[in-house]
Design a protein that fits this description.
The chain is α/β, with parallel strands linked by helices and about 270 residues long. The chain has one domain: 3-Layer(aba) Sandwich (Pyruvate Kinase, Chain: A, domain 1), CATH 3.40.1380. It is about 60% helix and about 15% strand. It is built from six helices and five strands. It has a five-stranded mixed sheet, sandwiched between helices. The chain is elongated, with a radius of gyration of 30 Å.
């Protein structure tokens, strides 16, 4: 049984090793792109002229919150899913939820969609349609993504990222060349433009978070399977030591029995 388990873990570890480098590279690339997209949306969505003069897209404060939970579809990921499940279990009934990953479980939230990762990859429009309806009809005052964020191989942590409304960057004016006072020339309806731009931004952020979560998943899976193999080897070594001890005990017992038998035969009258 131990050999079968070990072989399964070896296969999982091998697959994780194959995926982990590519996943980390993709996450590193997209982290740079993510910061640029965030800066662009921050500069547009929080522009004072849009907000005050043109009364651009603003969330409805009375609407519920939409939270997108991203989990893992695979085992051997440590506490990857348990942390997401903890937040999912704490969600209030007036929260709308989208659950991505077959290992995420019960919640009191109103689940709009539950989907596995492979199914979503094959048909991304399922999620895009919900986001489009949310922004077009202002159904939600806030849209957030819960996922395990990959920073580097030694830093993976649970993160909740707000993607609507776009949060103001407190470092603006220091690290960025804008201060939300730039003026824009806009043709057409600004709210139509902002809705389309926001829908694209949210869907893009979801994909970026999924790429990042994929890196976290593979790093954790590779680490967990490596640790499992180490423990299996240690257990096999302990079992081998115990078997050797038992064999030595049996051999010693035979020697003692032979010695006792010999002494008995010597003491018999001839």
């Amino acid at each position: 049984m131990s050999i079968k388990v070990k072989n399964v873990v070896k296969v999982m570890n091998f697959h994780a090793l194959l995926r982990v480098d590519a996943a980390k590279r993709h996450a590193d690339q997209y982290q740079v792109l993510e910061r640029e997209v965030e800066s662009m949306m921050d500069n547009i969505a929080n522009n004072r002229n849009f907000i005050l003069d043109k009364k651009a897209l603003r969330p409805n404060p009375k609407a519920p919150e939409l939270v997108i939970y991203i989990g893992s579809d695979f085992g051997f990921c440590g506490n990857y899913n348990s942390q997401v499940n903890d937040l999912l279990a704490q969600a209030s009934p007036d929260t709308d939820a989208i659950i991505i990953g077959k290992k995420l479980h019960h919640t009191n939230a109103n689940v709009l969609m539950r989907v596995e990762k492979d199914e979503l990859d094959a048909n991304p429009h399922m999620l895009e349609n919900i986001v489009a309806e949310s922004i077009r009809e202002m159904k939600h005052r806030k849209v957030s993504i819960v996922y395990n964020r990959y920073e580097n191989a030694s830093s993976i942590h649970l993160d909740t990222k707000t993607v609507f409304p776009v949060e103001v960057d407190d470092s603006a004016g220091k690290e960025h060349p804008y201060d939300y006072d730039d003026d824009f020339v806009v043709e057409g309806n600004i709210n139509d433009l902002m809705r389309d731009l926001t829908m694209l931004y949210i869907n893009y952020e979801i994909r970026l978070c999924m790429v990042n979560a994929n890196a976290s998943e593979n790093v954790l899976r590779q680490s967990t399977t490596s640790e499992s193999l180490k423990k299996i080897d240690e257990r096999e070594e302990e079992e081998l030591k115990w078997e050797r001890k038992q064999r030595r005990a049996q051999e010693f017992k035979k020697v003692i029995e032979s010695f006792v038998t010999l002494k008995s035969e010597e003491g018999r009258p001839r």
